[in-house]
Amino acid sequence: MKLSLAPAALIVAALAAATLMAFGFQSEATRQDLFLVAGTGLFSIALFATRVVPDIVATLLVFLISLAVAVAPAGIVFSGLASGGFWLLVGGIVLGVAVVTTGLGTQISNRMLALSGLSYQRAVLVVATAGFLLGILIPSTIPRVLILIPVAVSLGTSLGFPAGSRGTMGLCATAAVSTLLPTYAIYTANLPTIVQFGALESLYGLKTTYSGYFLAQFPVNLLRFAVLLAVLWRFSTDKPDPQHLQPGAGAKLTAPQTRLLVLLVCAITLWASDFAHGIQPAWIALAVATLVLWPKMEILPKSAMKDKIDLTPALLFSAIFCVSALARHVGLDVALANTLIGKLALEPGRDFWNIYAVFGFSVVLSHLTTAPAAPLVLAPFAEPLATATGLPIVTVAMVQMIGIASPLLPYQAPPLLIAMSLADISTGLLTRICLALFAAVVLLGLPLTIFWWQFTGLLPAHG
């Protein structure tokens, strides 16, 4: 696989420079810990971003190096294995394998094929729309990725694209990105949003509503959706091959497919109603996966865990979590934030500059950790940033969310990295999509949002 190291090198260089600035404000002992964690983080970022070694090798290397630097106990290094996200992934991987193995993915893709016809562009639109709509139903990105990726693979096969072809890869990339980045317009769709505004309510008593959040965020996320379609519509030059279409578009579901579909509907219903029952998405996924693996259900063969199920994406997630946990443990995130905030030249009345500066600050901090961990770093800085800019805290918080939702590289958003591992999506393709969406946000999204906020009153006029 041909890899381009330039994007990763740029990010690594930027993070290294920013980290070195932070070192100047620390004691000697703390500076050594910061240096070790920064080096570990930068090396991990390079591995995740370039994929120069297999995912499992990168994962084990991150764990080994994190243990070797000895700046945190093993409980912190392996804390990702105890997180709900890890077990959500384990359950989701089992569900994804079941969707493919039973042929349910093909059944669903055949019905999607009825909407798209023999048009790659319409297929991209159908998958992207499905990804966004799942954001309304399921309040966690990883389950959406795990459900939609196998369907996208099956849809590619139904259109006559061979496995690993550009056509199938483009549909999988559409599924991965559309379930994550445009859904940041939905308050309940992504964990970083929930954590961010939960922390702000705890710290400052700030409350927001579903509709208020959507009203503030929809312009920039509508742009993301449009740019995603524009990038992927022309990605594949392959034409659907009607001679290789999978038969049985109207075939009846088999008994295993019916049982799996019932379990998936139950899981989606429970995920969508977690506000009412309070059961974590991870435990729902784990319970459903247990039933899927139960031999008496006759959904997967008894040897499935040995022959079909690869838990590498879940271990990869735990390695990402390890890097951010180390940064938080030694205070690298706070040290960098405290250093940068004084260098942003913030001043009341300079709304365009202030919003771009807060956006850039949020992007840097979110890339030092990952999107799910970024709000824990950024939320405490909402009030100092609001004071320095003269903006309301809620406006600063909305800008921070745009920054968190604007990854430069796929590694910063674990669902994208997981999708790459599940579907063998090209690193270069997802990197180009991330960079295109980031450029669209910087050049069009932020100015459009600023004017929209001035119109709606979220950005007060200065008298």
From TrEMBL:
It holds the Pfam family Na_sulph_symp. It is a multi-pass membrane protein. GO terms for cellular component: membrane. The keyword Membrane applies. InterPro entries: SLC13A/DASS. It comes from the Bacteria. Keywords: Membrane, Transmembrane, Transmembrane helix. The chain crosses the membrane at residues 34-53, 60-80, 86-108, 120-139, 145-164, 210-233, 253-272, 278-294, 314-332, 352-378, 390-409, 429-453. It is found in: Membrane. Its main location: membrane. GO terms for molecular function: transmembrane transporter activity. This is Transporter, divalent anion:Na+ symporter (DASS) family.
